[in-house]
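yo, Nuclear transport factor 2 family protein is done. seq:
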Amino acid sequence: MNFRVFVFAAIALGCSWRCEAADQNAQVMDPVQHFFDALGRQDKSGLLAVVAPNIEITSVQQNALHRLTIEKLADAIAAHHGGPIAEHIHQPQVHVDQDLAVVWAPYTFTINGRVDHCGTDVITLGKLQDRWVIIGLSDNERKDGCQ
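structure:
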C-alpha cells in the first residue's frame, strides 16, 4: 500500500512540475506573441507596450552587427507601405530562471505573404513588477535557405 501512495505522489508531483513549467512558458510567450501580432498590424504602440524602454535590436548579418533602437524599429514598421508584413516564429524553445527568460526560435518574415528573409530570433525577457517584458531582441537575418 505504501508503494502505491509513493507512486501516486511521484506522478502527482511530476505533473505539477510539468504543468507549472508549461504555465510559466505560456506567460513568457505572451508578450512575444503580442509583439509579433503588433508587428503584423504595424502598431507602434502595441510593439512598445511589451518591451522595456530604450532597448536595442541586434542583428548579425554577413559577419557584421547591425543595431537599431526599438523606437526606430517601431517607427519603420509603422511606416511600412509595401504590403502586409508578418514575422512567424516556429517551435520556440523557452528557458526560464526566476525573473529572466530566453526564447530561441527560427523565424520567417513575410511581405505580402511571400518570404522576404528568415533566421533565428533570440528574445530575452525580464519579469518586472510581476509582468514579463522583452528586454532584448537579436536575430541572424538571412535571405538564403528560407522556405
